[in-house]
Amino acid sequence: MKGLIHIYTGTGKGKTTAATGLSIRYAGSGGKVLFTQFLKNDDSSEINILKQIENITFLPSGSYFGFTRSMTPEIKEKARIHYNSLFEKSVNTLVNNNYGMLILDEIIAADNAGLIPHKKLINFLENKPGNLEIVLTGRNPSQDLLNIADYISDIKKIKHPFDKNITARTGIEK
After folding, report:
1. Which of 88, 145, 98, 101 shows the shortest CA–CA distance to 4?
2. How far apart (Å, rounded) are the C-alpha atoms in residues 100 and 134?
3. Coil, strand or helix: which one is 117?
4. For residue range 29-44, what is the model confidence (pLDDT) as tens digits?
5. Are strands 101-105 and 133-137 parallel, antiparallel or unpaired?
6. 115 phi and psi, to 5 degrees?
7. DSSP string, 1-67
8. Is 71 helix (H, G, I), strand (E, B) or coil?
9. What is the mean pLDDT of residues 24-33?
């Protein structure tokens, strides 16, 4: 089976949820999944269940630097070094363990913020193993990413509780 590239993007809730659902479906069919999150603090509720599924490996970030818009230049440099290393670790883990699916949750945001090298991401996607399915999530993917993707799902916010100052709720948004 030829592996394809998926992008879940948009302003709406559900990008990570869609990636999580696809990873569960793939693991349920016997496939091996590597799931990595960027710009998150490793405590989202979906991680609890993903860790219990035999064919899914969650590669934790191990560090959280806050929202990119709030990062000082010093923090942003630390985040850049960290997330570049996390991307490299994801690729190396993938190659050495014969995974069929790679989830790079919020890598688009990390790419947009300059926290991973854009050319390195594009080069990886253009030269990925032929049978590898890859899922990228995040808002505002670059034209390069849009061009390379086989699937693009734009999850549009119509209405969200955040607009009424209702913060993220465990089990629903986090």
Report:
1. 101
2. 9
3. coil
4. 999 999 999 999 888 8
5. parallel
6. -90, -10
7. ----EEEEESSSTTHHHHHHHHHHHHHHTT--EEEEESSS-S--HHHHHHTTSTTEEEE--------
8. coil
9. 97
